[in-house]
Design a protein that fits this description.
Keywords: Glycosidase, Hydrolase, Lyase, Manganese, Metal-binding
Strand content: 5-15%
CATH class: Alpha Beta
CATH superfamily: Indigoidine synthase domain
Radius of gyration: 20 Å
Protein name: Related to Pseudouridine-5'-phosphate glycosidase
Organism: Pseudozyma antarctica
Number of helices: 14
InterPro entries: Indigdn_synthA-like, PsuG
Largest sheet: 10 strands, mixed
Number of strands: 12
CATH architecture: 3-Layer(aba) Sandwich
GO molecular function, one term: metal ion binding
Shape: globular
Structural class: alpha/beta
Length: 353
């Protein structure tokens, strides 16, 4: 793909948009997004902290995710809503505050914030806490000019959605917000084939880092479903850049399989997933919208405690991969900015009239 430098610089501009003035950026994120001191950034969600894991395990995971991003050359930008402000990048006291929301789940006043909830949570002002979901994090990451986001699993089509219409807002967001989401596929409690069908309908690019081309199933690397192979980190970064160059305004799903040493326990976890899903139907939990996923994850941790460790392993692995690709994307942007005349993706300069 060969384009004039001017055209390619438009793609760089699209990837490095000026942060929305209402966002509160941490000093590290602000510096990384400054054109003069630009550095790769990886967005991280906060629902995993407020609702996904118990305290203090959630704080340990949040800290490990940030450190993993740093260790692989990027700047972490954990996103949350606190005291009526949308924050992009948190300090240690803010991470601790989010984590403490999960001390007693029955008294958790934090709100799971997807796109629809952001304005509502911000309007509550002082004392309010919003843990951003995949869709909420994507919205705010794009507003900040952060094109790469790492999470555990995306939401998707819930089992029985043909009658409940329970389909995650994450899928809609992926169809309209140009952020690359690094995940281990949809959460295993979901209907994975139907989730892929909806993503196709919304025009979302879905690829996997599994060399076999098999789409991962969250706790295991195998779902029996095939998608294109994402290739190397540099090729993944080139795909993100090309999306911006074309102005497609849709997101990417980069599905990163759980490390192979967790596949065996993943098979046992999947059996417990089936039991938890059956119980949710029996108890009517499956009809309670955004309460379904936290209930299922909590029940899963009760049935098979190893699920917490697997969850941690896969989300940390996704943060690592996202940081590595963010570094490659930053390299492409720098090469385009420095190029004279023309530039070809893949690093092969060519001359065009």
């Amino acid at each position: 793909m060969v384009r004039s430098t001017a055209i390619l610089r438009q793609a760089v501009h699209a990837l490095s948009r000026t942060p929305h003035p209402t966002l509160a950026l941490s000093p590290a994120v602000r510096s990384a997004l400054n054109p003069k001191t630009r550095a790769p950034v990886v967005a991280l969600e906060s629902t995993i902290i407020t609702h996904g894991l118990p305290y203090p395990y959630n704080l340990e995971v949040a800290q490990e995710l940030e450190q993993t991003v740093i260790d692989h050359g990027a700047v972490p930008a954990t996103i949350a809503l606190l005291d009526g402000k949308p924050l992009v990048g948190l300090d240690e006291p803010q991470l601790e505050r989010l984590a403490r929301c999960a001390i007693d789940p029955s008294k958790n006043t934090a709100i799971k914030a997807s796109r629809r909830d952001i304005a509502h949570v911000l309007s509550k002002g002082h004392g309010s806490v919003g843990g951003t979901t995949v869709s909420g994090t994507m919205v705010l990451a794009h507003m900040a000019g952060v094109p790469i986001f790492a999470t555990g699993g995306i939401g998707g089509v819930h089992r029985g959605a043909e009658s409940t219409m329970d389909i995650s807002a994450d899928l809609t967001e992926l169809g309209r917000t140009p952020v690359a989401v690094f995940c281990s596929g949809p959460k295993s409690i979901l209907d994975i084939p139907r989730t892929l069908e909806v993503l196709e309908t919304f025009g979302v690019s879905v690829t996997t880092f599994n060399p076999t081309g098999e789409f991962p199933a969250f706790y295991t690397s195998n779902s029996g479903l095939s998608v294109p192979y994402a290739g190397t980190d540099a090729q993944a970064a080139a795909a993100i850049f090309a999306n911006a160059q074309l102005g497609l305004q849709s997101g990417h799903v980069f599905a990163n399989p759980i490390p192979s040493e967790w596949n065996e326990v993943g098979q046992r976890i999947q059996q417990s997933v089936e039991q938890a899903v059956r119980e949710s139907v029996q108890q009517g939990i499956d009809k309670k919208g955004k309460e379904v996923t936290p209930w299922l994850l909590k029940r899963l941790a009760e049935l098979i405690p190893e699920s917490k460790k697997s969850n941690r392993a896969l989300v940390v692995n996704n943060a690592k991969k996202a940081a590595q690709v963010a570094v490659e994307l930053n390299r492409i942007e720098n090469e385009v900015q420095q190029a004279a005349g023309t530039y070809a993706l893949g690093g092969i300069p060519q001359t065009v009239s």
